[in-house]
Every structure is written in C-alpha cells, then in structure tokens.
Amino acid sequence: MKIGVIGGGQLGRMLSLAGTPLGMNFAFLDPAPDACAAALGEHIRADYGDQDHLRQLADEVDLVTFEFESVPAETVAFLSQFVPVYPCAESLRIARDRWFEKSMFKELGIPTPAFADVQSQADLDAAVASIGLPGVLKTRTLGYDGKGQKVLRSAEDVAGAFAELGSVPCILEGFVSFTGEVSLVAVRGRDGETRFYPLVHNTHESGILRLSVASSNHPLQALAEDYAGRVMQKLDYVGVLAFEFFEVDGGLKANEIAPRVHNSGHWTIEGAECSQFENHLRAVAGLPLGSTAKVGESAMLNFIGEVPPVDKVVAIADCHLHHYGKAFKDGRKVGHATIRSADLPTLKARIADVEALIAKA
Ligand code: AMP
Questions:
Q1: Which of 316, 228, 301, 312 is nearest to 267 (CA)?
Q2: Would the CB of 153 count as within 6 Å of ligand 1?
Q3: pLDDT of residue 319
Q4: Which NCBIfam families does the record cross-reference, listed alphabetically (predicted)?
Q5: Does the annotation flag 136 for ligand binding?
Q6: The model's pTM
Q7: Strand 2-6's sheet: what is its strand order?
Q8: Which atom of ligand 1 is nearest to the CA of 143?
Q9: Is the pLDDT of residue 360 over 80?
Q10: Predicted pLDDT at 72
C-alpha cells in the first residue's frame, strides 16, 4: 500500500519509519527542498496548492493523510475527488481554526477558557470588556509553538494588539491559571473503533513543548477520553487525534486539538505496545488498531535548536535517540529522546541526565 502524506517534516519521517515494516511505501508532498521525510520516501516537491502535483500524488497513492493541519481547504477538497483522504476535510477545517474548534467544544459540552471572536481592534476592546484581563489573543489559524499569540495583562498590552498579530482574524481567550497541561492521544479506525493512550503531562519552554511524561492511572483519564470520544464521533474521525487540555480545579479545560500524530505522543514509539505512528497508519489503512498500553515508565524530551552529542545520549540506559536530520536552528525541533525505565524515580534521574547534556550542548 502506498500512503501519500501532505507535509514532509519529522512527523512524516516517523510515519514512514512505522509504516515500512507493515509493507507500506510513502510519498511526501512538500515544497521544502530539504524536507526531512524525503530520506524515507518519494518527495514530490511542490506547493500545497499545486494541482498538477496534487493530481500526481493522488494517482500514485492509495490514500492521503497529513502531518500538519494548516493545509488549505481547497487542497483537501481537490484531493478528495480522486483518492480517500483521512482524516476528512471537515476535521481539518475545524482543527485548523481556533474559533471553529472552540465553538465545537462548546457545542459538545466540553469546558473551554472563555473565548470571543476578534475581527478588529474594536472587537478586541469589546471582548476584553466582557472576558476581562489577563487574556490570550491568538490568531485563528496558522499558530504553532506559541507563535501567533500574545498574552494581554494591561490596557497598554491591549492597545494595538490586533495589528501586532497582523490584523488577521483572532480569538481572545481568558487566561487559565492551570495547575498543569496534559494531552490525550486518541485513535479511531475506519470502523469507529476508538483507543486512547495514557494522559501525558507536558512542560513547555517559550511556548515550545520540552518534556512529555506519560502518566499511570491519571484521575482525569476517563474524562479526557469522554471529551475526545465526543469530538471524534462528531467528526466521524479516522486516524490519530491529539487533544490538549489545561488541568484546572480537578477538571479539564480544552485548549486545542491536532488532527494528526503529535509531539506529545512521540514517547509511544518505544514506550507503548503500538506507537501513535503505527496506529495512525493502521487506522487510515483500515487495519485493526494496536494496543495503546504503556510499557513501563516513559518520557519524551525534545531537542530544540540542536541535538546533543549522539554518543552521550545513547550512553544513557534505555534512552532512545531520534535525530530528524534537519539543519540545526534556534527554536527548531531537530530531534527528541524517549527515556524509559521500570520506575518513576529512575525515569526522573535519566531525564535529568539527558537535560544535563542539553545544558552543555
Ligand atoms: P497553544 O498554541 O494554544 O497550544 O498555546 C501554547 C501555550 O500557551 C499553551 O501550551 C499554554 O502553556 C499557553 N496558553 C495558551 N492558551 C492559554 C490560556 N488561555 N491561558 C493560559 N495559558 C495559555
């Protein structure tokens, strides 16, 4: 089976690493000359709106999936005429736009921060008057790793904030004083079967995910599964979906969903019986889903900007390096390590050992 992937970054690369043993081949459509998935499949180098190359991709593959959600809606609609596309166009339409996303959560009875649509500075002033400060102004689309957002704490922050974010459609959210951030990686097959990985605790630095630690018997697991299940059913979703939550007052507030494999699920490559990448491929290909059970304790530490010396990383017991083969650049995710152990104290010690390498790098 040949899988077409829109996007050729590290997520595409890891999809190929998981799918190759299942007998799958891959083609990646990505305009970047140095797309890092190109080492693991065919690289169709073209813009996402280039219909000739989209048609070529559709003709070559059995189905198309995505490694990022900011795909133009026209691209998805165009491909869908010729080849099955998972997850469906509607899932992408909702997940790529924070207003649609939060409106859907509200409709499904899933708690969110207070939010308002902002199309102008006057809208922002009105939204601040009703939601209050502090708040977070975010562009509705194309935001990632903390980009395209601004925390508003004072009237001075509010003045001109709409223009600062580019005078594009935005959403204002009430600032959530959360006790933690967790994410749930879920997968739904073509037949509607749904499975969930354990909730993961996430720590960010400068808006970028740094550390994910998989939990055991988290008290909010069932609630998170209930919320994710509602979303996947509503969208008739097929594939892996990641759901990010704020933990607050012993409950959850929905932050966002990602209609794809997710950075906070990378630990599953070595830390779960079947990884998020394999389960995504199983789902879109109509294969039975694999077990989402955790194997021991697991964490994922991102390498941002540069990868520490390979010999030092792999010298740490049960530490598994993933080097994406990308040029090193500040703020860029260039690799990660899965760190495992039989118990939590050992896991923490090993995480500290890898963090010490990052500090030295
Ligand atoms: P996002 O791109 O929406 O995932 O936001 C990136 C990070 O900013 C989140 O992981 C949080 O740490 C923080 N953040 C986003 N929205 C809010 C909010 N409404 N209240 C407090 N912190 C937020």
A1: 301
A2: no
A3: 98
A4: PRK06019.1-2, PRK06019.1-5, purK
A5: no
A6: 0.96
A7: 42-44, 25-29, 2-6, 63-66
A8: 2
A9: no
A10: 87
